[in-house]
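Allow me, if you will, to draw on your knowledge of protein folds for a short while. I have a record of one protein: its chain in single-letter code and its fold written as discrete structure tokens. The full record is reproduced below for your convenience:
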Amino acid sequence: MDIQERLGLLRARMRDNKVDVYIIPGTDPHASEYMAPHWMEMNWITGFLGESGTAVVTMDKALLWTDSRYYLQAEKELAGSTFALMRESDVDTPSIVEWISLTPRTPSPLGEGAYTVGVNPEMYSIRGYKALKEELAEADIALKSVDLIRPIWTEGRPDIPMNPLYMYDEKFAGESVDSKLKRLREAMAEKRCDAMVIAELDEIGWLLNIRGTDVDYTPCVIAYVVVEKERCTLFVSRTKVEKVLKGLDVQGIQVREYEEVFDYLRQINATGVLMDGNRVNEALYEAIGDRSQVTDDRLQDNNPIRRVVVTPSPLQVMMSVKNEVEIAGERTAMLEDAVALTRFFKWLMVDNAPCTVKGEGKVLTEISVAQKLHEFRAMGKNFTDESFGTIAGWKGNGAIVHYAAKPESCAKIEGNGVLLLDSGGQYLDGTTDITRTMWIGDEKAIPAAVKRDFTLVLKGHIALARARFPKGTRGNQLDILARQFMWQEGVHYGHGTGHGVGHFMGCHEGPANIRTDNNTNPIRLGNIFSDEPGIYRAGEYGIRTENLMVTKKVNHNDNHNDNHNHNVLARSTGEEYYEFETLTLCFYDTRLIDMSMMTPDEIEWINAYHERVYRTVSPRLNNEEKAFLADQCKKL
């Protein structure tokens, strides 16, 4: 079917269901960062292949909202489809609800009744659905839960992935399933709940110590879980668990088919059901029949009808606090990653200088560089996949924060310029994420402006890495440390400074982060964060420097940069202080540093870091690789 045929079928279903407007978001039922193709309904109805967008269809109009990253792609892919592009990043573009509210309502062919917007409740979180319903109600518009895509997308729709799942060994996880379930049930009891519904795939994998290959870049299994006082039920296709049924049974985990979760919830014998409003979809909420919804601030309410407690999942905090085994595993993964990165950068900076493969005359591209990095990582012990699609941005492409090179249009890496490389790996031991900015070409040709920007970024990166702070500190209270030098020069970056990172799980993890937004979740011991300030010069270059770091207690008997007074004060007041340990082990391109901008403490920090990198990584390298790394790590 072409797009017009698809729209015709959708509009017929809209008439049958008395829906005036239908919204198709680019989401899935599990609030996933990376979706399985089965749920790419927005892409199917529009023909737009970008990762972010929302389609809106009326009886005579079809529109797509997407952000500035995808404007050019959307214009090309929507051509001839009758879908109009709505540039949501532009200040004069109305929101979807504003557009629906302000668009004249011609006499409806749907008969009498309220003007109605329809959505598939599986594609909306509980809070997202509630917010949309309230916003529409202000314009006297009704919201209806109805899936109109499933009945018409019958040809060529990819199946839900059926890849077998596997048990994640406790020697990597560091905690048994029984222990995790015990802790979760204690947290449920505090909310006066005897059941909890879990839909986010990362949480399911962590809780049950299972992993899979259903989703790109994240070792997840597509499933639901319902935890009750005396049982834990995994809703997943039985074909995926045939080889591990015995292991699941030993752990007391019952298995039912994936789609049975809705019937199960309709009959669940529970007086209080906990659901994360941002991670559990509206369809699961609606499956629980007579109910009252309460939030944390209304837990004192008693109601004979089932209480659905909509509150952040306690699993988010549990997952984010890495145990000793997980942290040790992350260090192992970082070493494997460091060996791969060292070999890759030698290949790029020495073996292929000036970016032509010896003997082949083959010019490197953003794509071929990313592929080569993958090859080096794949040689590492316990490597399974990348942790996200590698961002290799040459010159101006590096200024596009979420740049994704395409084979037909990627840049050739030739001449002199800045290469921004953001990449990561998934190892059974842990998850890595690193960004390095490198100069390719003649070192004498490095512009002073590039050195200045690189050094501003590096100074902020170091300032955050060296931070010490009292227990209870939030990420937004530390964010300024990374931005201060840039702000003094009138430079700003729009993304966050640090995101949480999972353990052989999602590269982006909550609940805490380091950014300007006021996130009330404090930084906790065992949290792993990225440290990644950046500067982006449109059309010229992008600079970002990123390491991963873990939160640990300050040992006040140690002298940290000769800060003796701080240590005396902390010991006298009895306060508990935290700091970060940098986990990533990869050199910085010191050719890009403007030494006149660096302080002695910053130089000392870099030298100490490089000494640790060489000491830790070099035993794994051959003589040529050792010599290369020694040159990159030489003292400033």
